[in-house]
Amino acid sequence: xGVTIQQIAVKAGVxxxxxxxxxxxxxxxxxxxxxxKAMMEKMQYRPNxxxxxxxxxxxxxxxGVVTQSLNPFIAAVVTGMEEEARKNGKLLTxxxxxxxxxxxxxxxxxMTEPPVVDGILFFxxxxxxxxxxxxxxxxxxxxxxxxERRYENILPAVIIDNFNGAKQATEYLIGKxxxxxxxxxxxxxxxxxxxxxxxxxxxxRDAGIxxxxxxxxxxxxxxxxxxxxxxxxxxxKNLPTAVFAANDGxxxxxxxxxxxxxxxxxxxxxGFDDIQMASFVSPxxxxxxxxxxxxxxxxxxxxxxQILGEEKVHxxxxxxxxxxxxxxx
Length: 329
Fold this sequence. Notes:
Number of helices: 12
Oligomer: single chain
Structural class: alpha/beta
CATH class of one domain: Alpha Beta
CATH topology of one domain: Rossmann fold
CATH architecture of one domain: 3-Layer(aba) Sandwich
Strand content: 5-15%
């Protein structure tokens, strides 16, 4: 005989009704919800997704995730989404739509007309997707946006404190005695790129260090653009003493370029995101960290509240960042 919700309730020290509310994605205190879900996991309780679907206004049992790629950062966050979705008796349907892909409208329509998912998580949506998002919002289709604040006036959102994270990283480098700090920006169509650049500028301003446009190189949040930016810095007559890349992928590209040119140590290197690879490169990457899995989990948590009609007002949850000091800076 399988584990019952009554047994879960007893072990978690809550009522059976509370367990039922957690199973159905209804509002309970976050701490209580996590305690109940942890007990379900420990006791290997598995809700019958299909039975619950029949009992909850013919829900499909699936959540759509729309993103642009599956780089290490996105993969880590999607892992958190998948874990939280399973705890809610849902499965993920993943749609990877490269930037500018003309099929994006067709893919979204396939998901929603008629709906084959109960809601959609837009992970790092671009400005080109605004029309699609606004159209779905008018239909009141359950949606949440993750890691992009430009849509928070339309949808519930879960974002990172990019401004203060970047400011904290730059202040750390200044505290280490650096005054010529290069910066590699991210994609210009993403708000986190803008916020991280502004955090960098603010830290310089607060320290009385003039901002130099020549110390900012464009990037595209990938290793290749980090390598290219590092090459540009190395061509300067007056090198920066440290380089802050707006994500870890670009920072790893900087380290790779320094090694290829046998210029290790030409400048210190700082990243942002603390992806798993950051601790395995050599030198291990000093970076700005936050809980990638929690970002995914909280996005699903918000979407479940949308699906169940519990999220009455569009709200934004902002996750805090922290420094992760290793060898590169």
